[in-house]
């Protein structure tokens, strides 16, 4: 027979300790979902050669496996955050996990390119709903400032871990199982989150109104950048001056201009234009655009080079990214220590310059090269420079923000990262394919010739990023 609560000899659980335990368990579940979201973006890159050969993707079409996801995730991120405010963060988190889990299942069983790309677009929607809601739930769970700082730090750290572990896990799954498992592995994580989160996290109170959601701008941004990316990918098989290319790109630019005009007139704009009046914030976001346009693309080209030209297996390719992850972590630590002493601009200029040198070294790859002779040095220099750059961009993006617009500042930068990455990848892939198709060389040499052009153009873009870094005010963020 169970003893009543007041029976002598029975220990009654301390409600405060139980609540504290539940909060940290809830944080663990939220971190696991965030790990899954970030992992899926990076893991797909290693699997691209296997996906392409299995489903019959064209060289240009394979770009959509990456771009479809990041376009929707980045373009709808701010909308997802506002929906969480209006409908409740737990509700939007659950909806995002459901969308992500179901679309992961479709990705895992896809039988043709169209099915996989469509499911990747829907996966991006799932991330746009779940990721900002998860961060908002952490703020609800941890009201103490020191605990909240620790929890948010863990949230950021798990994101970095997901990006680093993605290539390795993908290599293991593709090598010993199938590329399909990089998507199917998401399903048990999604189910666990759907079971545990309602029991551990309260719903929270909605804090906004439907009238405050700028849906037209969000949809317009996604459509605009999708058109621009589609036009850029079309340039792989058509001249840049052709109707297909010019039509889609100019249409996307026109739609972006319309969104900008709408922002000046909307009562509750998605991003108020006065948000960019801060010089540090504006320059940091500009550097973000140039930097991520190249940063995303390098994983794509290095992966294809190592597997299709050098002949490494998926597992070997995944392992080859470990030095990159370790080096970028070293750069992050050094940047964190240097910014308060030297200021944001100095560290950002050095970081973007080193990243440019690293990509320039990668442009020296050869058809008969190897990982050690052709990739390792450039990737390490790029990694260290990127490690210096990444915290600088985050610090600059939230410069002089208040509590009321800190979430907006972070959301804007995350959106720019993904959208710029999608556009940059589309442009560089088209340039590479156009060069290789017109080179008249043997297949391997023609492929490498195209990759060399992509790395060279990427170097030029990073030089622009380094020059733009000088716009950051002297002494910004110095202690």
Automatic annotation (TrEMBL):
Q: Where in the cell is it found?
A: Cell membrane
> Which residues are in coiled coils?
none
Q: Which residues form the signal peptide?
A: none
InterPro entries assigned to the protein according to its UniProt record, in alphabetical order: MFS (IPR011701), MFS_dom (IPR020846), MFS_trans_sf (IPR036259)
Q: How does it sit in the membrane?
A: Multi-pass membrane protein
Q: Which PANTHER family match?
A: BLR6921 PROTEIN, MAJOR FACILITATOR SUPERFAMILY MULTIDRUG TRANSPORTER MFSC
Which PROSITE patterns does this UniProt record tie to the protein? MFS
Q: Which residues form the Major facilitator superfamily (MFS) profile domain?
A: 26-477
User: Which residues are listed as membrane-spanning?
Assistant: 24-48, 60-80, 92-111, 117-142, 154-173, 179-201, 213-233, 239-261, 282-301, 321-339, 346-363, 375-395, 416-433, 453-472
- Protein name stated in the entry: MFS transporter
Q: Name one Pfam family in it.
A: MFS_1
Q: Which UniProt keywords apply?
A: Cell membrane, Membrane, Transmembrane, Transmembrane helix, Transport
């Amino acid at each position: 027979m169970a003893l009543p609560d007041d029976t002598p000899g029975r220990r009654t659980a301390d409600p405060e300790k139980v609540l504290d335990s539940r909060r940290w368990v809830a944080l663990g579940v939220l971190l696991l979902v965030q790990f899954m979201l970030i992992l899926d973006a990076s893991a797909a890159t290693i699997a691209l050669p296997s996906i392409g050969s299995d489903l019959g993707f064209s060289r240009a079409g394979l770009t959509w496996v990456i771009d479809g996801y990041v376009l929707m995730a980045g373009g709808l991120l701010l909308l997802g955050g506002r929906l969480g405010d209006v409908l409740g963060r737990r509700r939007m988190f659950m909806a995002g996990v459901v969308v992500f889990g179901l679309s992961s299942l479709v990705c895992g069983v896809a039988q043709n390119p169209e099915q996989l790309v469509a499911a990747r677009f829907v996966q991006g929607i799932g991330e746009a709903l779940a990721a900002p809601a998860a961060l908002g739930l952490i703020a609800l769970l941890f009201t103490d400032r020191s605990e909240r700082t620790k929890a948010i730090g863990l949230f950021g750290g798990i994101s970095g871990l997901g990006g680093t572990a993605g290539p390795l896990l993908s290599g293991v799954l593709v090598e010993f199982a199938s590329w399909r498992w990089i998507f199917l592995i998401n399903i048990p994580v999604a189910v666990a989150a759907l079971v545990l989160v309602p029991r551990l996290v309260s719903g929270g109170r909605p804090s906004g109104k439907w009238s405050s959601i700028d849906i037209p701008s969000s949809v317009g941004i996604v459509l605009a950048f999708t058109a621009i990316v589609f036009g850029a990918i079309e340039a792989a098989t058509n001249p840049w001056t052709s109707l297909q290319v010019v039509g889609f790109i100019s249409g996307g630019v026109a739609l972006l201009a319309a969104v900008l005009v709408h922002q000046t007139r909307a009562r509750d704009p998605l991003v108020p234009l006065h948000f960019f009046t801060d010089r540090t914030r504006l320059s940091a976001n500009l550097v973000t655009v140039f930097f991520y346009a190249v940063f995303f693309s390098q994983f794509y080209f290095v992966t294809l080079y190592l597997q299709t030209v050098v002949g490494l297996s998926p597992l070997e390719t995944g392992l080859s990214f470990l030095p990159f992850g370790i080096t970028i972590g070293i750069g992050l630590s050094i940047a964190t220590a240097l910014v308060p002493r030297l200021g944001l601009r100095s560290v950002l200029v050095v970081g973007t310059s080193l990243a440019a040198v690293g990509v320039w070294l990668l442009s020296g790859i050869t058809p008969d090269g190897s990982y050690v002779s052709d990739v390792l040095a450039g990737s390490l220099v790029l990694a260290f420079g990127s490690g210096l750059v990444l915290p600088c961009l985050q610090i600059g993006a939230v410069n002089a923000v208040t509590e009321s617009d800190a979430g907006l500042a972070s959301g804007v930068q995350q959106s720019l990262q993904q959208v710029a990455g999608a556009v940059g990848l589309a442009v560089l892939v088209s340039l590479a394919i156009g060069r290789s198709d017109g080179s008249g060389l043997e297949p391997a040499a023609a492929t490498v010739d195209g990759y060399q052009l992509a790395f060279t153009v990427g170097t030029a873009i990073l030089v622009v990023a380094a020059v733009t870094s000088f716009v950051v005010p002297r002494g910004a963020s110095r202690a």
